[in-house]
């Protein structure tokens, strides 16, 4: 692979002074149906290669597809949750292209008759509501997975040949496409991130997908263009493919804004192309130019009859929708007694669902918020992974808080328990046992440590005897040090005051 | 009238990965035009009351239950493959057309 050309970037503030960004997002959601979109193969990616395939998803001659009714139901529910109209009648279409990840030489998709269209989602960014308009949500199928062999990097360039696994080919996908998002200005990166984060939350609430970005269940393509400030026109766009974390969505938008601006201000023009996002270096590189390759010769799929959801069915599905996100946030804020700022930070960190589940597992609201927005948000930043992808569950967070509540560990030790769980050392209780983190609650051992602290600090002890209770802090410090932090400070204080009463 | 130019045929051939020589293009392009014109004569029969259709039968909503049914084993799936490695289909290297 040739060394990537280093792009010139314009400082972000300068970009905003000269240009207006237009943003568009395409998100693919992999449904969690049991079987594939058009055949009865398991809709599970992974496992032994090519063991979850059949003549239909391999595109063998004579094989006939049949639509998975559950996938249509999921598509309609997603559309309704995005305030879309649901088509009274629509067809599948063949998108023709030649690439070995699609053995039929076409992808069964929808073209000008998407099942869902004309919707919107209200996205909260820093406490303000931004309406993102949804152009369409349509049904299609996933492709196979290529492994590039040979070459120096394992990536596509320089590969000698490719090995293809079709287990993923035919898994149902819903592609959700926004209209251009205009007027976001300097908040465009945050709007993009918030949209994808909130969309994921919605998908999780609908229960139609595992929705894990790190597993590729949810994949975002970021379209971006710049226009001279105030011109009101749309510039030439680039499409950055497969941006696979909330953080990367934000960074990819920012990067492309700065890259476009540098080119445009230098008198150059933007090449309409796809770009590849590189997670490790946080840059995009040039992919395929969009020209003839965009001519997919779509035509209606002759092997599948039209889908015409009855209004009765659509109404019935409307009744299964989760609570509207805005209403839900207001309800949770009231239930939890969070301030506006606490709520905004929770939503902004993408931790609303996590906090909710942690509370459902028994933690107090403020405790749940404290761990997710403190310890865990910090870890997510440090490790560069989305908070939802940290290897710890809400149930485990609730368990750690329960250990604090019953004084098995104190706050400081709890941080070590988090560290252990995140490092894969097992459940909170296993980490406490294996790291020996439980506080000493045995009054005998504590009492001995308190006695020796009093003996070693007669002056301090004297002041406490005279009623200067505040001086106890110094002795507590000595005892905690002696116990290497593994003591309940409250109990130590009680013991000191008892002994010096 | 439906007429297809030589350039359009060449473009379609490229999209369909069909190598056509100049002589073949000269030969085939006019033939395709004739075929299109013949098919278009159906328009003369179908009045305004006949909507265009893509399917022969007036069926909608043919759905399958979301149930897993056994398919092929990896050995069966790969039995017709010209080349395979580690239970995967082996294909020539792909040049810059990543979708």
Give an overview of the whole structure.
The complex is a heterodimer of chains A (501) and B (99). By secondary structure, chain A is α+β, with helices and mostly antiparallel strands. Chain A contains 16 helices and 16 strands. Chain A has 3 domains: 12-294 and 309-316, no CATH class; 323-435, no CATH class; 443-499, Arc Repressor Mutant, subunit A (Orthogonal Bundle), CATH 1.10.10. Chain A has helices at 12-18, 69-81, 188-206, 246-265, 311-318, 325-336, 340-348, 352-360, 365-383, 394-405, 411-422, 428-435, 443-456, 458-465, 472-482, 489-499, and strands at 19-30, 67-68, 85-86, 93-96, 106-109, 116-125, 128-141, 145-149, 161-165, 172-178, 181-182, 218-228, 238-243, 273-278, 283-289, 299-300. In chain A, strands 1, 3, 6, 7, 10, 11, 12, 13, 14 and 15 form a 10-stranded mixed beta sheet that branches. In chain A, helix 8 (352-360) crosses helix 9 (365-383). The longest helix of chain A is centred in the middle third of the chain and has 20 residues, at 246-265. Chain B has a domain at 1-46: Glu-tRNAGln amidotransferase C subunit, N-terminal domain (Histone, subunit A, Orthogonal Bundle). Chain B is built from 4 helices and 3 strands; from the N terminus they run αααβαββ. Chain B has helices at residues 6-15, 22-40, 42-45, 74-78, and strands spanning 63-64, 84-85, 88-92. The longest helix of chain B has 19 residues, at 22-40. Chains A and B meet through strand 2, helix 2, strand 8, strand 9 and strand 16 of A and helix 1, strand 1, helix 4 and strand 3 of B. Strand 9 of chain A pairs antiparallel with strand 3 of chain B, so a sheet runs across the interface.
